[in-house]
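Subject: Re: docking follow-up (flavin-adenine dinucleotide)

Dear J.,

Thanks for your patience while I sorted out the input files. As discussed at Tuesday's group meeting, I've set up the holo structure prediction with flavin-adenine dinucleotide included as the bound ligand rather than trying to dock it afterwards. The sequence and the ligand SMILES I used are pasted below, so you can double-check that they match what you have on your end before we go further.
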Amino acid sequence: MAKLNVQEREQLREEIRKLCADYPNEYWRQLDIEREYPYEFVDALTKSGYLSALIPEEYGGKGYGMTEATIILEEINRSGGHAAGCHAQMYTMGALLKHGSEEQKRKYLPEIASGSLRFQAFSVTEESAGSNTTAIETFAEKTEEGYIVNGHKNWTSRVLQSDLLMLLARTTPADQVGAKKTEGLSLFLVDLREIREKQPETFVVEPVRTMFNYATNQVFYKNMKIPSECLIGEKGKGFRYVLDGMNAERTLLAAEAIGDGYFFIDKATSYANEREVFDRKIGTNQGIQFPIARAYAAIKAADLMRYEAARKYDEGEKYGEQANLAKYLSSEASWQAANVCLDTHGGYGFVDQYDVERKFRETRMYQVAPVSNNMILAFLGQNVLGMPRSY
Ligand SMILES: Cc1cc2nc3c(=O)[nH]c(=O)nc-3n(C[C@H](O)[C@H](O)[C@H](O)COP(=O)(O)OP(=O)(O)OC[C@H]3O[C@@H](n4cnc5c(N)ncnc54)[C@H](O)[C@@H]3O)c2cc1C
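The structure tokens for the complex came back this morning:
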């Protein structure tokens, strides 16, 4: 792994800042109004090589560690951008690298790294299962040639912008897995180009409009045929592979929330230093200054936990507790900073030209998805603190 030293990490940060400067708030604001995907930005990030941060060098990627990957996503959000358009390629990488076959890696990773293949979609959540992933019903039935998939996912983001899809589906009926509810689910890497070309009627996508600019969708799988080579790792072990990836996802998204937090602190501080009411800067008032300082303290503390989670990942240590803590603390801290920033701006906080209301809507998601903070607290209560399970 090409781990960077402290100076090199700062240089990486500077390079991402420079790249993001070409995509200022006006760019993201317009996309938000139109609910459009940031194609130009994602292309630029891909061409720079930074989107392939977690792809090993032997497959054409940067071969960085988790710490570097989190710096990239943090800086995108800190600049006023929204890393949601491209983060999935980073967090799906763990399952593919750890559990994918050498053939799958050789076939896909170099093309993902070069940008000729886009890999941004992860299809897990279902309406009837919700947070209880082990209750999903989408079924992949084994046939001689491969699998036939049927089911409905109520959330699958960026699937219209992706060539590859990571799909979690049941391969053993729920009533046959017995007490081990985590068994019987399998993970597939589906080449959507073939599906779109040869059997488009089996893969129906319905965009879902949300309160912020997020390219998310419902997906209906209707007798979609996929070859056996799509299976990642062992049949029936998919839930475990997804769990592996979830801690990476939590750490990466924690860094995005931290980026948002710094965006709000930067924005609130400069407005507090500039806006004058009652013949003084509003930042002179402790009613304005202290909430900003308090939100800054919360962001800094969450940031330390994010680095701790990333460090443990990079050193191959168990990091479930730290990944969950980082996700929880950073999402709460970014929301605190968002509210403080909005209060600091008074009425202008609601005006789109100031970008506070846009980022306010964006950062609210981190408390709910990819996993709700209640589930994080349940993990900490049960798995770390040893209290009884509630479900
Ligand atoms: C913008 C967006 C994009 C998304 N993109 C994707 C995607 O690309 N792929 C994908 O697979 N999913 C995606 N999701 C889905 C996301 O992962 C889920 O929304 C999230 O996991 C929560 O599940 P749910 O919405 O079904 O909530 P539910 O499970 O219905 O929960 C609702 C509320 O009840 C609480 N709750 C439920 N059970 C318990 C309990 N036992 N104890 C305490 N509280 C409980 C939850 O914490 C939550 O607050 C996306 C979601 C959003 C909002």
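A couple of observations from a first look. The chain has 13 helices and ten strands. The pocket of flavin-adenine dinucleotide is lined by residues 122-125, 130-131, 155-157, 210, 214, 216, 365, 368-372, 374-375, 378, 390-391 (CB under 6 Å).

Let me know if you'd like me to rerun anything.

Best regards,
T.
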